[in-house]
Design goal:
The protein is mainly β. The chain has a single domain, classed as Immunoglobulin-like. Helix content is 4%, strand content 46%. It has 1 helix and 8 strands. Strands 1, 2, 4, 5, 7 and 8 form a 6-stranded mixed β-sheet that branches. Strands 3-6 form a two-stranded antiparallel sheet. Strand 7 and strand 8 form a beta hairpin. The protein starts with a strand and ends in a 6-residue tail after the last strand. It comes from Kistimonas scapharcae. This is BppU N-terminal domain-containing protein.
Length: 114
């Protein structure tokens, strides 16, 4: 079952999402080398992935922590204020896929548009 996590940011701001990985059996740090993080953000989770407003596929380096960054360019042109559905999936080197986190990304309007 995915963890539910919601974020609120101003459109055009940076959002850093820290991720830590551990073995569910004994909670020891888990080396994620070769795993892929998939970040998908849509107006509605019922839309096809081709409708996503932000997508990121990142192959992880060695280590048990990683920071997923939503850059200003990712949200600069999105509608605000508005809430979007997102999830973060992990794909193992053998092709298994697990949804780790899901939630809402709420964009608020800011005064600066540069």
């Amino acid at each position: 079952m995915p963890v539910e996590q919601h974020y609120t940011i101003t459109r055009g701001d940076t959002l850093a999402i820290p991720l830590a990985f551990s073995d569910p059996a004994d909670n020891t740090p888990l080396d994620m080398a070769g795993y892929t993080i998939r970040f998908t953000c849509k107006t509605s989770k019922f839309e096809d992935d081709s409708q996503a407003v932000i997508t990121k596929d990142i192959v992880l380096p060695a280590g048990d922590t990683f920071t997923l960054v939503v850059e200003p360019v990712d949200t600069n042109t999105l509608n605000a204020p508005q809430s979007y559905d997102y999830d973060i999936q992990l794909e193992t080197p053998t092709g298994e896929v697990f949804t780790a986190i899901e939630g809402k990304l709420k964009l608020e309007m800011g005064a600066t548009w540069r």
